[in-house]
C-alpha cells in the first residue's frame, strides 16, 4: 500500500507534485509561488490547455523547472461543493498522474478532507502485481510513498488511522476479487480470512460435514460438482456493548461460476472468477471495522462454493432442501448464488438474531441491464434500512438504487413439485432473485445489494484503476459509522 505522510509545509522541494486546483476561485498560493519560480511556465500551461479547475480535469506539466520533474494540476470543481467523495476522486486522479517517481507530494492547500484525498490516492495507486514477471522491479517502479501537504495537516493526520484501515479493507477486497479461481478456491479463501484473526476478528470455519449437519442442502447442492470443498466462514467483531444484537453482513462467495450443467457461454466466462465479490466485500468490511476498532458488534457470514460441471454436478430439475426446511426445485443450475445465500441468510438469522442483515452478491445479469455500472441494486423489506443504506451510498459514491419488490413478483417462483423454484423467468430477473432471498430472512430487517454491475470495472473510473472496485466496503463502513456507532 502506498505510504502516506502529512505535512503542513508549503513548499515542496522538487520531484513530482500534484496540486489540487478549485474552479472559479483564486489560484492556490503554491500555484503562484511555483509559477514565479518557473518563470510563468505553469500559467502558460494552464492557458494552453484551457485548464479551469473543472472537477475531473487535469493537466500535466513536464519539467517546468525549479527542480520539478512534473507538476500535475488536478481540477476539483467548486471549493464550496468539495465533499469527501470528491476528495477521494481527486486523490485517485493525482496518484495516477504522478507517475512512478521516487519523491512525490500532493498539495491540498486550504481545501478540506485531506485525509480523504490520501484515501483516494492510496486506492488510485492500487495495482495487483502478484503474477507479473520480476515483481521486485515492478515495485521499485511504482509510487511507494506520498506526502500530502495540507493547511490542516494535523486534522488529516488524526483522521488517517481510521481511513487507512478502510483503505486496507478495500485493498483486501480487490485482491481477493482479482485472484484467479485456480488459486482462490473456497478452501484457500477461508484460509485467507483466517489470517484476519491478527486484527482481533473472531473467525470460525464450517467445513462440509459441519454444513451437512446444519442441513445446508441448497449451498451443498451447488458445491457438489466441484472437487474443491465448500466452506462457510463466520467473522465476528465485538466492539460494541456486550448484549447489543449484531449487525450481520452476508456475502455470496462463488469462487468460480461456470453455470454448472446449465453452462454459460465461453465468451466472458473468465469474468466469473469474481463471482465471490460479495464475500470479498464482507471480508474487507470486517477487516476495516476491526482495523479501526469500530464501536459496534458485527458479524460477517460468507458462503464459499465453486459452481462446476462434473458427473456429480447438480442437475436441472433436482430438488434440494434448504436449512430453513423449505424445498427448492433447481430449474437452472446457473441461478446458484441465491441457493448459497438461502442457507447462510437463514443461518445468520437463526444463530445471531441480528439487528439487521445486509447481503451482497453478484447475483444477476439482469441488474446490469436495469442499472448499468453506476448504481448497485438495493432491495429491502424495511424502508428505514433502505433509506440509511442509500444515504451512505450518496456520501461515499458507492451508489444504490432501490428496486421494487412485491407479492406479484414472488408468485413467479411457484413450483409444481417443491416450495419454490430457483428462477422466475427473464422479466424482472433481479427482482425475482431478491424475492427468492426474502423467503429466507423472516421478519429481520434485511437489504440485498446486487453488485453484479459494480464489483468490477472494465475501464478506469473516478481516479480508480480498472478491475476489482471494492464497491461496498466504504459504503457499509460509512453506514456503520454514521448510523450504528456511538460517537
Ligand atoms: N453470477 C451470475 C450473475 C452475474 C452475471 C454476475 C454477470 C456478474 C456478471 C449469476 O450466478 C447468474 O448466472 N445469474 C443468472 C440467473 C439466471 C439463470 C436466472 C443470470 O443473471 O443470467
Ligand atoms: Mn450463475
Ligand atoms: Zn453466480
Automatic annotation (TrEMBL):
Binding site for Mn(2+) 1: 257, 334, 336
GO cellular component: cytoplasm
InterPro entries: cNMP-bd_dom (IPR000595), Leucine_aapep/pepB (IPR011356), Macro_dom-like (IPR043472), Peptidase_M17_C (IPR000819), Peptidase_M17_leu_NH2_pept (IPR023042), Peptidase_M17_N (IPR008283)
A Pfam family recorded for this sequence: Peptidase_M17_N
Keyword Hydrolase: yes
A GO MF term: metalloaminopeptidase activity
Name of this protein: Probable cytosol aminopeptidase
Binding-site positions, Mn(2+) 2: 252, 257, 275, 336
Protein purpose: Presumably involved in the processing and regular turnover of intracellular proteins. Catalyzes the removal of unsubstituted N-terminal amino acids from various peptides.
